TrEMBL record:
Protein name: NmrA-like family domain-containing protein 1
Gene name of the encoded protein: NMRAL1-4
Listed InterPro entries: NmrA-like, NmrA-like_oxidored
Keyword Metal-binding among UniProt keywords: no
Record region (Disordered): 277-299
Annotated keywords: NADP
Species name: Fusarium oxysporum f. sp. raphani
NmrA-like domain segment(s): 5-262
Cellular component aspect of the GO annotation: nucleus
Pfam family, one: NmrA
């Protein structure tokens, strides 16, 4: 390994978000990247292993001995715990513990992949409680209370991936008119922030490339704030096909079969309700604004 290269430990590196970060870090051979994953034989791990300067390390990221070994002799760490898989309580514990182990291991810069702390933004009204987001937000609050030396820290707060527009958020053909494409979502006039995964990778790379600027920062990132009516109009402009935005209820979303987690209905409802009408009736948008490409272009 070249002495000029810093080694980055990636926890959660084989996921959609993590893979984008690995690709950004390996783009020009400036970093050595160590990806901790449960299965080195998985297709996702194999794809990353083919990239330059990437090493796959097999092990359970939610195990003390594995973490002690993984953090050994690395300068940088990017951490994204899987709250859907381990639950909010475990995510809070392991997020904090990973920070502690990184600190005791001599890591110079710790980057935590976070989401908005929705309950806190909603003044802890129970109707806004959203476990898979709150867990990350609580860890972010803990890290934000820590000193920025000797170990630097940065929170990278992101949002829903733009790629879900071809998956969970994909439009559907109207059953009444086969020539009509319907963009249906329970959003009203809301313009939620979405991020293109490649952009997320570039932001994470920027954090490590610019430690003097990113240290102690909660960097909230998005590619664009998108309204579904605009999506439908743009679709028509690009394809020449008819399209409309249909504002639907949450119940309609679940009965449509588009959402794969019916047991999370209440949790999703709380999040969407805050997005449209949370603090000061301005929703999440009023409480905290994400920077977008539009902002960058005006500076």
């Amino acid at each position: 390994m070249s002495g000029s290269k810093k080694t980055v430990l990636m926890i959660g590196g084989t996921g959609a978000q993590g893979a984008a970060v690995v690709k950004a870090l390996s783009d020009d051979s400036a970093y050595e990247i160590r990806v901790l994953t449960r299965s080195a034989a998985s297709p996702a791990a194999a794809e990353l292993a083919a990239l330059p300067d990437v090493t796959i390390m097999e092990g359970n990221p939610y195990e003390e001995a594995t973490l002690q070994h993984a953090f050994d002799a690395v300068e940088l760490a990017w951490v994204n715990t899987n709250g859907f898989a381990i639950g909010e309580k475990n995510e809070i514990y392991w997020g904090i513990r990973m920070y502690e182990i990184a600190r005791s291991s001599g890591v110079s810069h710790f980057q935590w992949a976070s989401l908005p702390y929705v309950s806190k933004l909603g003044d802890f009204d129970p109707k806004y409680r959203t476990g898979h987001m709150d867990g990350k937000g609580k860890v972010a609050d803990y890290i934000s209370a820590q000193p920025t030396s000797p170990m630097k820290w940065t929170i990278l707060t992101s949002c829903m991936y733009m790629e879900t527009l071809t998956e969970l958020l994909a439009p559907r053909q109207s059953p009444e008119d086969p020539d009509l494409t319907v963009f249906a979502a329970p959003l009203g006039n809301g313009r939620p922030p979405l991020i293109y995964l490649a952009d997320l990778g570039r932001y994470a790379r920027w954090v490590f490339d610019n430690p003097g600027r990113s240290n102690g920062m909660n960097l909230m990132v998005a590619t664009e704030n998108i309204g579904w009516e605009c999506l439908a109009k743009t679709f028509t402009e690009v394809t020449g096909k008819k399209a409309i935005y249909r504002d639907i209820s949450l119940d309609e979303l679940f009965t449509s079969g588009a959402f794969p987690f019916p047991d999370r209905k209440a949790e999703l409802f709380r999040f969407l309700e805050q997005l449209e009408g949370g603090p000061s009736k301005g929703g999440l948008r009023s409480a905290r604004r994400y920077p977008t490409n539009e902002d960058k272009n005006t500076k």
